[in-house]
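Please fill in the sequence for the structure shown.

STRUCTURE ENCODING:
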C-alpha cells in the first residue's frame, strides 16, 4: 500500500501487519540505512504482532526514491501521515508511534515540534543517543518537549547508547519516561547467546516490553 507523505515528496510505501484481535497499533519507522523490509524491522514487527499489537511499517521518501535525506518538514509530515494512515486502517484502537534507531529519534523530534494526533506514546527501539565512539547527549535535548509517555528499549551492548548521558534527561522526565535494557543486545539486537541469562528471543523480549508499557497508557 501507499500513502501521501508530503505534497512535495509524493507517496511512500507501507506494510500493515494485523493480528486477529489487535489491542492497538504501532507505527514503525525504519533506521537510517535500511528500509521497512529489512530483516531487523520485520523481526520487530512480527514480535509485536505476537503480542497483539498491529504494526504499520513505512518508508521515508528518501528511502523510497533513493538519494539524500529528507528535510525535517518532509520527515515530520511522513510521520504524521503514517499515524493518520494507521488509524484509518485500524479504527477504534489506541495508537503508538515509534521506530528503530533513526526512525524512532525522528518520531520524537516530530512529536516535540507538535504532538502527533492521537498518539498515546512514543517508543524507541535502540534510541541513537550518539554516534559510536562519540558520546554526547545532544540528541536528547528535545525530549522534554514531547508531551506523551516514552519508552526506550536498548541492548546492553549498544554503542550508540551511553546510559549515564541519558540518565539526567530521564530523571527530568520522571514518570513520562521508561527505560528497558535487553541483555547482551547490540544496536541491531544481535545477542551473545551464551551469555544471555534470559532464554526468550530478544525480539520477543522487546515486544513484551513494548506491549507491557502500552497497557499502562491512558
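FILLED IN BY: designer on duty
SEQUENCE:
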Amino acid at each position: 500500500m501507499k500513502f501521501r507523505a508530503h505534497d512535495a515528496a509524493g507517496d511512500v510505501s507501507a506494510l500493515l501487519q494485523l493480528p486477529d484481535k489487535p489491542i492497538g497499533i504501532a507505527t514503525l519507522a525504519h533506521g537510517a540505512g535500511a528500509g521497512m523490509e529489512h530483516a531487523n524491522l520485520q523481526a520487530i514487527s512480527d514480535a509485536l504482532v505476537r503480542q497483539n499489537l498491529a504494526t504499520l511499517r513505512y518508508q521515508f521518501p528518501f528511502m523510497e526514491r533513493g538519494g539524500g535525506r529528507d528535510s525535517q518538514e518532509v520527515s515530520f509530515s511522513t510521520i504524521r501521515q503514517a499515524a493518520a494512515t494507521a488509524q484509518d486502517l485500524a479504527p477504534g484502537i489506541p495508537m503508538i508511534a515509534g521506530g528503530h534507531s533513526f526512525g524512532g529519534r525522528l518520531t520524537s523530534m516530530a512529536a516535540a515540534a507538535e504532538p502527533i494526533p492521537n498518539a498515546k506514546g512514543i517508543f524507541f527501539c535502540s534510541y541513537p543517543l550518539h554516534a559510536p565512539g562519540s558520546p554526547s547527549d545532544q540528541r536528547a535535548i528535545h525530549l522534554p518537549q514531547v508531551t506523551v509517555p516514552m519508552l526506550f528499549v536498548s541492548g546492553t551492548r549498544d554503542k550508540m547508547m551511553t546510559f549515564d548521558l541519558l540518565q539526567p534527561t530521564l530523571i527530568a522526565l520522571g514518570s513520562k519516561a521508561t527505560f528497558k535494557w535487553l541483555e547482551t543486545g547490540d544496536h541491531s539486537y544481535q545477542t551473545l547467546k551464551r551469555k544471555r541469562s534470559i532464554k526468550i528471543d530478544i525480539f520477543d523480549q522487546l515486544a513484551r516490553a513494548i506491549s507491557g508499557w502500552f497497557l499502562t497508557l491512558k
